[in-house]
């Protein structure tokens, strides 16, 4: 079996040592020393969060021809998903799930040209791609910025069957405020009523 050369990147020496310690005994992989990183077929970037420094490293790795990159991360949010997509990352593994078998399976998948994502992140990615497709097909169509968080929450509650009083109670607003906000949404989007508003925002993936 040809061992897959892997470079492990981590600013935190504890994180780097932990991942290296799990990978080194396995016959499927060859963990490279720093001076040999240019030989890597796969790069694993181990971070707490995908911050600016991590993004800079990921962009640099993307420019390295022949290297497939995965991220082992502690916390992963929507902004991080966008960053990893932009940086060409092909695998994301949460640190809490990064046992030896999972790490090796990720390296092997990356080497084969496959992508690895947790199920919930795959759902987010599909939603993201859907929004991009809609923006390409209809660049003037509604986006997430069409609604304020308060407006989106109110419409979500309407879609769950809540009336004005229930929305006011759940969101700690007066009923007058709820009515004013919903009136503003329907007027701004040129919609006929609340049902039309809910259908509109659900159809466009805004709630």
Account of the protein in words:
- With 207 residues, this protein is α/β, with parallel strands linked by helices.
- It has helices spanning 13-23, 52-62, 78-86, 100-111, 119-137, 149-159, 164-171, 175-188, 194-203; strands at residues 4-9, 29-31, 42-47, 68-73, 91-94.
- Strands 2-1-3-4-5 form a five-stranded parallel β-sheet, sandwiched between helices.
- The N and C termini lie far apart (49 Å).
Write the layout of secondary structure elements.
Elements (H helix, E strand, L loop, with lengths): L3 E6 L3 H11 L5 E3 L10 E6 L4 H11 L5 E6 L4 H9 L4 E4 L5 H12 L7 H19 L11 H11 L4 H8 L3 H14 L5 H10 L4
Parallel strand pairs: 1-2, 1-3, 3-4, 4-5
Helix pairs in contact: 6-8, 6-9, 7-8
How is this structure best summarized?
By secondary structure, the protein is α/β, with parallel strands linked by helices.
Rounded to the nearest angstrom, the radius of gyration is 23 Å
Compute the number of structural domains: 2
Mean pLDDT: 83
Oligomer: single chain
DSSP strand (E) fraction? 5-15%
The helix content is 40-55%
β-strand number? 5
């Amino acid at each position: 079996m040809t061992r897959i050369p892997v470079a492990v990147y981590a600013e935190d020496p504890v994180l780097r040592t932990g991942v290296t310690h799990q990978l080194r005994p396995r016959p499927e992989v060859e963990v490279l020393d720093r001076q040999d990183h240019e030989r890597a077929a796969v790069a694993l970037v181990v971070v707490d969060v995908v911050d600016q420094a991590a993004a800079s490293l990921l962009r640099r790795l993307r420019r390295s021809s022949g290297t497939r990159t995965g991220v082992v991360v502690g916390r992963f949010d929507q902004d991080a998903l966008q960053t990893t997509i932009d940086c060409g990352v092909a695998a994301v593994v949460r640190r809490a799930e990064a046992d030896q078998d999972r790490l090796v399976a990720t390296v092997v998948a990356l080497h084969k040209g496959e992508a690895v994502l947790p199920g919930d992140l795959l759902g987010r990615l599909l939603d993201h791609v859907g929004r991009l497709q809609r923006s390409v097909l209809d660049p003037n169509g509604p986006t997430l910025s069409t609604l304020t968080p308060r407006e989106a929450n109110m419409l979500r509650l309407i879609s769950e069957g809540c009336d004005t009083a229930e929305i006011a109670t759940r969101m700690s607003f007066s009923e007058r405020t709820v009515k004013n906000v919903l009136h503003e949404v329907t007027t701004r989007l040129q919609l006929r009523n609340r049902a039309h508003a809910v259908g509109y925002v659900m159809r466009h993936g805004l709630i």
